[in-house]
Amino acid sequence: MTHGSATALNASVERRASTFSGYLMLLVLLAVTALGLYAFSMLVGSEQPPLGPVLFFVGTVLVFCFVSIGFYMIQPNQAAAILLFGDYQGTDRATGLRWRWPWLTRTKISVRVHNITSERLKVNDLRGNPIEIASNVVWRVTDTAQALFDVDDYKQFVHIQIESAVRAIGSRYPYDDIEHKEVTLRSDADQVSEELRVELQERVAAAGVTVDECRLTHLAYAQEIAQAMLRRQQAEAVIAARSRLVEGAVSMVQLALDQLSAKNVVELDDERRAAMVSNLMVVLCAERDTQPVVNTGSLYQ
Q1: Which of 35, 61, 114, 115 is least surrounded by Cβ atoms within 10 Å, i.e. has the fewest?
Q2: What is the pTM of this model?
Protein backbone atom coordinates (compact mmCIF):
# COMPACT_ATOMS: atom_id res chain seq x y z
CA MET A 1 0.00 0.00 0.00
CA THR A 2 1.36 3.41 -0.93
CA HIS A 3 1.70 6.33 1.44
CA GLY A 4 -1.05 8.26 -0.37
CA SER A 5 -3.48 5.35 -0.02
CA ALA A 6 -2.76 5.05 3.69
CA THR A 7 -3.41 8.76 4.16
CA ALA A 8 -6.74 8.50 2.33
CA LEU A 9 -7.85 5.54 4.47
CA ASN A 10 -6.94 7.27 7.74
CA ALA A 11 -8.55 10.61 6.86
CA SER A 12 -11.38 11.68 9.13
CA VAL A 13 -14.66 12.92 7.67
CA GLU A 14 -16.94 15.41 9.38
CA ARG A 15 -20.50 14.26 10.08
CA ARG A 16 -23.43 15.70 11.98
CA ALA A 17 -23.59 15.04 15.70
CA SER A 18 -26.72 13.89 17.55
CA THR A 19 -27.29 16.77 19.95
CA PHE A 20 -30.36 18.62 21.19
CA SER A 21 -31.64 22.15 21.47
CA GLY A 22 -30.59 23.68 24.76
CA TYR A 23 -33.74 25.78 25.01
CA LEU A 24 -35.95 22.67 25.14
CA MET A 25 -33.75 21.13 27.81
CA LEU A 26 -33.83 24.42 29.70
CA LEU A 27 -37.61 24.04 29.98
CA VAL A 28 -37.07 20.51 31.29
CA LEU A 29 -34.60 21.89 33.83
CA LEU A 30 -37.09 24.52 35.00
CA ALA A 31 -39.80 21.87 35.34
CA VAL A 32 -37.49 19.63 37.36
CA THR A 33 -36.58 22.59 39.56
CA ALA A 34 -40.23 23.34 40.21
CA LEU A 35 -40.89 19.70 41.12
CA GLY A 36 -37.88 19.68 43.38
CA LEU A 37 -39.06 22.77 45.21
CA TYR A 38 -42.49 21.20 45.60
CA ALA A 39 -40.98 18.04 47.03
CA PHE A 40 -38.79 20.10 49.36
CA SER A 41 -41.83 22.03 50.61
CA MET A 42 -43.46 18.73 51.51
CA LEU A 43 -40.45 17.72 53.57
CA VAL A 44 -40.14 21.01 55.46
CA GLY A 45 -41.82 20.91 58.84
CA SER A 46 -42.26 17.14 58.85
CA GLU A 47 -40.52 15.39 61.72
CA GLN A 48 -40.63 12.02 59.99
CA PRO A 49 -41.02 12.69 56.27
CA PRO A 50 -42.51 9.84 54.21
CA LEU A 51 -40.13 7.80 52.12
CA GLY A 52 -41.93 8.69 48.88
CA PRO A 53 -41.38 12.48 49.01
CA VAL A 54 -37.77 11.92 50.07
CA LEU A 55 -37.07 9.67 47.10
CA PHE A 56 -38.89 12.09 44.81
CA PHE A 57 -36.79 15.01 46.05
CA VAL A 58 -33.54 13.07 45.65
CA GLY A 59 -34.62 12.07 42.15
CA THR A 60 -35.28 15.69 41.13
CA VAL A 61 -31.85 16.71 42.44
CA LEU A 62 -30.18 13.96 40.42
CA VAL A 63 -32.14 14.87 37.29
CA PHE A 64 -31.29 18.55 37.82
CA CYS A 65 -27.57 17.74 37.98
CA PHE A 66 -27.84 15.39 35.00
CA VAL A 67 -29.55 17.99 32.80
CA SER A 68 -27.48 20.98 33.87
CA ILE A 69 -24.17 19.26 33.04
CA GLY A 70 -25.13 18.82 29.38
CA PHE A 71 -25.51 22.50 28.44
CA TYR A 72 -23.02 24.32 26.18
CA MET A 73 -23.10 27.26 23.76
CA ILE A 74 -21.94 27.67 20.16
CA GLN A 75 -21.31 31.11 18.71
CA PRO A 76 -21.79 31.97 15.00
CA ASN A 77 -19.10 30.45 12.79
CA GLN A 78 -18.08 28.07 15.53
CA ALA A 79 -18.44 24.29 15.78
CA ALA A 80 -18.12 21.65 18.46
CA ALA A 81 -16.75 18.16 17.90
CA ILE A 82 -18.57 15.61 20.08
CA LEU A 83 -16.56 12.68 21.52
CA LEU A 84 -17.53 9.53 23.39
CA PHE A 85 -14.53 8.35 25.39
CA GLY A 86 -12.23 9.63 22.62
CA ASP A 87 -14.35 8.27 19.77
CA TYR A 88 -15.55 10.92 17.31
CA GLN A 89 -19.35 11.06 17.24
CA GLY A 90 -19.89 14.05 14.95
CA THR A 91 -19.78 17.84 14.79
CA ASP A 92 -22.45 20.24 15.99
CA ARG A 93 -22.61 23.50 13.95
CA ALA A 94 -26.00 24.74 15.25
CA THR A 95 -25.57 28.07 17.03
CA GLY A 96 -27.04 29.09 20.36
CA LEU A 97 -27.72 27.07 23.50
CA ARG A 98 -27.16 23.35 22.94
CA TRP A 99 -27.37 20.17 25.02
CA ARG A 100 -25.65 16.80 24.76
CA TRP A 101 -25.60 13.71 26.95
CA PRO A 102 -23.34 14.28 29.95
CA TRP A 103 -21.02 11.38 29.12
CA LEU A 104 -20.17 13.05 25.80
CA THR A 105 -17.30 15.54 25.71
CA ARG A 106 -16.97 18.43 23.29
CA THR A 107 -14.09 20.27 21.62
CA LYS A 108 -14.84 23.66 20.14
CA ILE A 109 -13.19 24.87 16.93
CA SER A 110 -13.50 28.11 15.01
CA VAL A 111 -14.65 27.96 11.39
CA ARG A 112 -14.23 31.70 10.90
CA VAL A 113 -12.03 33.18 8.19
CA HIS A 114 -8.38 33.48 9.22
CA ASN A 115 -5.95 36.00 7.79
CA ILE A 116 -2.20 35.33 7.98
CA THR A 117 0.70 37.37 6.64
CA SER A 118 3.82 35.25 6.42
CA GLU A 119 7.23 36.46 7.47
CA ARG A 120 9.65 37.75 4.85
CA LEU A 121 11.49 34.72 3.55
CA LYS A 122 14.81 34.77 1.72
CA VAL A 123 14.59 32.49 -1.33
CA ASN A 124 16.68 31.96 -4.45
CA ASP A 125 14.60 32.58 -7.56
CA LEU A 126 14.79 30.53 -10.76
CA ARG A 127 18.05 32.26 -11.78
CA GLY A 128 19.67 31.82 -8.39
CA ASN A 129 19.24 35.42 -7.23
CA PRO A 130 18.42 35.79 -3.52
CA ILE A 131 15.08 37.55 -3.05
CA GLU A 132 12.79 38.44 -0.16
CA ILE A 133 9.18 37.33 -0.49
CA ALA A 134 6.10 37.33 1.75
CA SER A 135 2.45 36.46 1.23
CA ASN A 136 -0.95 37.10 2.76
CA VAL A 137 -3.23 34.05 3.00
CA VAL A 138 -6.96 33.93 3.74
CA TRP A 139 -8.11 30.50 4.94
CA ARG A 140 -10.79 28.74 6.98
CA VAL A 141 -11.58 25.31 8.39
CA THR A 142 -14.17 23.43 6.34
CA ASP A 143 -13.79 19.91 7.80
CA THR A 144 -13.57 20.04 11.58
CA ALA A 145 -12.85 16.33 11.93
CA GLN A 146 -9.75 16.52 9.76
CA ALA A 147 -8.55 19.71 11.46
CA LEU A 148 -8.84 18.22 14.96
CA PHE A 149 -7.88 14.60 14.44
CA ASP A 150 -5.74 14.30 11.29
CA VAL A 151 -3.03 16.81 12.24
CA ASP A 152 -1.47 17.60 15.59
CA ASP A 153 -2.06 21.39 15.50
CA TYR A 154 -3.93 22.61 12.45
CA LYS A 155 -2.95 26.28 12.91
CA GLN A 156 0.74 25.49 13.17
CA PHE A 157 0.36 23.08 10.27
CA VAL A 158 -1.08 25.85 8.08
CA HIS A 159 1.71 28.26 9.09
CA ILE A 160 4.39 25.75 8.12
CA GLN A 161 2.72 24.88 4.82
CA ILE A 162 2.41 28.57 3.92
CA GLU A 163 6.15 28.98 4.35
CA SER A 164 6.85 25.85 2.28
CA ALA A 165 4.49 26.93 -0.52
CA VAL A 166 5.93 30.46 -0.67
CA ARG A 167 9.46 29.05 -0.90
CA ALA A 168 8.41 26.65 -3.66
CA ILE A 169 6.73 29.37 -5.74
CA GLY A 170 9.57 31.83 -5.16
CA SER A 171 12.14 29.40 -6.56
CA ARG A 172 9.94 28.42 -9.51
CA TYR A 173 10.04 31.78 -11.33
CA PRO A 174 12.61 34.53 -11.94
CA TYR A 175 12.21 37.81 -10.13
CA ASP A 176 12.07 39.86 -13.32
CA ASP A 177 12.58 39.59 -17.07
CA ILE A 178 13.23 42.82 -18.96
CA GLU A 179 12.21 41.23 -22.25
CA HIS A 180 8.90 39.90 -20.85
CA LYS A 181 9.36 36.51 -22.49
CA GLU A 182 8.49 34.42 -19.43
CA VAL A 183 6.34 34.55 -16.31
CA THR A 184 8.03 36.48 -13.51
CA LEU A 185 7.27 37.16 -9.87
CA ARG A 186 7.19 40.93 -10.31
CA SER A 187 5.32 41.30 -13.59
CA ASP A 188 2.79 38.45 -13.24
CA ALA A 189 1.72 38.80 -9.61
CA ASP A 190 -1.88 37.67 -10.24
CA GLN A 191 -0.84 34.47 -12.00
CA VAL A 192 1.81 33.70 -9.39
CA SER A 193 -0.66 34.36 -6.55
CA GLU A 194 -3.22 31.99 -8.05
CA GLU A 195 -0.61 29.29 -8.46
CA LEU A 196 0.44 29.87 -4.86
CA ARG A 197 -3.17 29.38 -3.77
CA VAL A 198 -3.44 26.09 -5.69
CA GLU A 199 -0.09 24.91 -4.34
CA LEU A 200 -1.05 25.76 -0.76
CA GLN A 201 -4.52 24.19 -1.09
CA GLU A 202 -2.96 20.88 -2.04
CA ARG A 203 -0.71 21.05 1.01
CA VAL A 204 -3.36 21.93 3.62
CA ALA A 205 -6.19 19.72 2.29
CA ALA A 206 -5.16 17.00 4.75
CA ALA A 207 -6.06 19.36 7.62
CA GLY A 208 -9.57 20.10 6.34
CA VAL A 209 -8.61 23.68 5.45
CA THR A 210 -9.74 25.69 2.42
CA VAL A 211 -7.59 28.53 1.09
CA ASP A 212 -9.75 31.38 -0.23
CA GLU A 213 -7.07 33.81 -1.39
CA CYS A 214 -3.31 34.30 -1.61
CA ARG A 215 -1.52 37.56 -2.42
CA LEU A 216 2.15 38.49 -2.48
CA THR A 217 2.65 41.32 0.00
CA HIS A 218 6.41 41.78 -0.31
CA LEU A 219 8.80 41.10 -3.16
CA ALA A 220 12.32 42.51 -3.44
CA TYR A 221 15.90 41.51 -4.08
CA ALA A 222 17.85 40.58 -0.98
CA GLN A 223 19.72 43.46 0.59
CA GLU A 224 23.17 42.15 -0.30
CA ILE A 225 22.48 42.27 -4.05
CA ALA A 226 19.84 44.99 -4.22
CA GLN A 227 22.22 47.73 -5.46
CA ALA A 228 23.89 45.46 -8.01
CA MET A 229 20.56 44.26 -9.37
CA LEU A 230 19.30 47.85 -9.53
CA ARG A 231 22.24 48.79 -11.74
CA ARG A 232 21.61 45.69 -13.82
CA GLN A 233 17.95 46.61 -14.25
CA GLN A 234 18.92 50.12 -15.27
CA ALA A 235 21.43 48.79 -17.80
CA GLU A 236 18.91 46.32 -19.21
CA ALA A 237 16.34 49.10 -19.45
CA VAL A 238 18.78 51.34 -21.34
CA ILE A 239 19.68 48.49 -23.70
CA ALA A 240 16.05 47.69 -24.33
CA ALA A 241 15.24 51.35 -24.97
CA ARG A 242 18.19 51.70 -27.34
CA SER A 243 17.12 48.60 -29.23
CA ARG A 244 13.61 49.92 -29.72
CA LEU A 245 14.99 53.29 -30.74
CA VAL A 246 17.29 51.78 -33.34
CA GLU A 247 14.48 49.59 -34.72
CA GLY A 248 12.26 52.64 -35.09
CA ALA A 249 15.03 54.71 -36.64
CA VAL A 250 15.84 52.03 -39.22
CA SER A 251 12.17 51.82 -40.18
CA MET A 252 11.93 55.59 -40.57
CA VAL A 253 15.11 55.78 -42.67
CA GLN A 254 13.86 52.96 -44.89
CA LEU A 255 10.51 54.72 -45.31
CA ALA A 256 12.22 58.03 -46.19
CA LEU A 257 14.47 56.47 -48.81
CA ASP A 258 11.63 54.48 -50.34
CA GLN A 259 9.44 57.57 -50.67
CA LEU A 260 12.27 59.67 -52.13
CA SER A 261 12.89 57.00 -54.75
CA ALA A 262 9.15 56.41 -55.45
CA LYS A 263 8.41 60.10 -55.99
CA ASN A 264 11.66 60.81 -57.90
CA VAL A 265 12.53 63.64 -55.55
CA VAL A 266 16.26 63.00 -55.81
CA GLU A 267 18.47 60.25 -57.16
CA LEU A 268 21.33 59.19 -54.91
CA ASP A 269 24.26 56.96 -55.65
CA ASP A 270 25.44 54.44 -53.09
CA GLU A 271 27.91 56.83 -51.44
CA ARG A 272 25.39 59.66 -51.01
CA ARG A 273 22.73 57.17 -49.95
CA ALA A 274 25.03 55.83 -47.22
CA ALA A 275 25.76 59.40 -46.08
CA MET A 276 22.06 60.21 -45.84
CA VAL A 277 21.42 57.03 -43.89
CA SER A 278 24.22 57.94 -41.50
CA ASN A 279 22.91 61.47 -41.00
CA LEU A 280 19.34 60.32 -40.42
CA MET A 281 20.45 57.69 -37.93
CA VAL A 282 22.43 60.30 -36.02
CA VAL A 283 19.44 62.65 -35.95
CA LEU A 284 16.97 59.97 -34.87
CA CYS A 285 19.17 58.20 -32.29
CA ALA A 286 20.97 61.15 -30.74
CA GLU A 287 20.19 61.93 -27.09
CA ARG A 288 20.49 65.68 -27.70
CA ASP A 289 18.80 67.92 -30.21
CA THR A 290 20.76 68.09 -33.46
CA GLN A 291 21.82 71.39 -35.05
CA PRO A 292 21.17 71.70 -38.80
CA VAL A 293 24.06 72.62 -41.09
CA VAL A 294 23.17 74.37 -44.35
CA ASN A 295 25.25 73.22 -47.31
CA THR A 296 25.43 76.05 -49.86
CA GLY A 297 27.63 74.13 -52.23
CA SER A 298 26.91 71.08 -54.26
CA LEU A 299 25.93 67.79 -52.80
CA TYR A 300 29.44 66.43 -53.36
CA GLN A 301 31.30 69.24 -51.57
Answers
A1: 115
A2: 0.69
